[in-house]
Design a protein that fits this description.
Blueprint: E1 6-15, E2 46-54, E3 57-64, H1 71-85, H2 91-95, E4 98-100, H3 110-129
Length: 141
């Protein structure tokens, strides 16, 4: 099954006042109750956490230090920390792995997209040099 080979990823922010991401939680009612949630916490803080799942393997958590996730920090995760997070995943799983982005590219920046494009072009070149016999280089470095 193809979905066993996909590394599904996402990130979330957890706050000390028990609030959740309001974009993902909605309140439905027959009439408009003008629903408001009061917040009495003086020093509100949060932590951004990234995680993933591939097959039966949980990847992470990875904590982003000092604020929101931006393109530079996400690129650091991909370039420097992802290999360590995937250390316990069997090689057979990694060789078939597809990496799925969560789709929130607004905070990622062009540097991350340039890096992904460069990796894809380099891997395609490796495959062509080997007459297509090392096609796994397209998917895993």
């Amino acid at each position: 099954m193809f979905t066993k080979n996909v590394l599904f990823t996402d990130e979330s922010t957890f706050y000390n006042d028990c609030t959740v991401n309001q974009h993902n939680s909605h309140y439905y009612a027959v009439e408009n109750p003008r629903w408001v949630m009061d917040n009495y916490i003086q020093d509100r803080w949060g932590v951004n956490v990234w995680g993933g799942v591939i097959g039966r393997h949980v990847i992470g958590p990875y904590f982003f230090d000092d604020g929101a996730v931006n393109g530079e920090r996400y690129l650091q995760l991909l370039q420097e920390d992802l290999d360590d997070l995937l250390e316990d995943v069997p090689l057979a799983v990694l060789q078939r792995m597809w990496f799925m982005q969560d789709g929130a590219f607004t905070g990622r920046g062009l540097s991350m997209l340039d890096r992904v494009n460069a990796c894809t072009i380099r891997r395609l070149g490796q495959c062509i040099e080997r007459n297509g016999q090392a096609f796994e280089h397209l998917f895993y470095e």
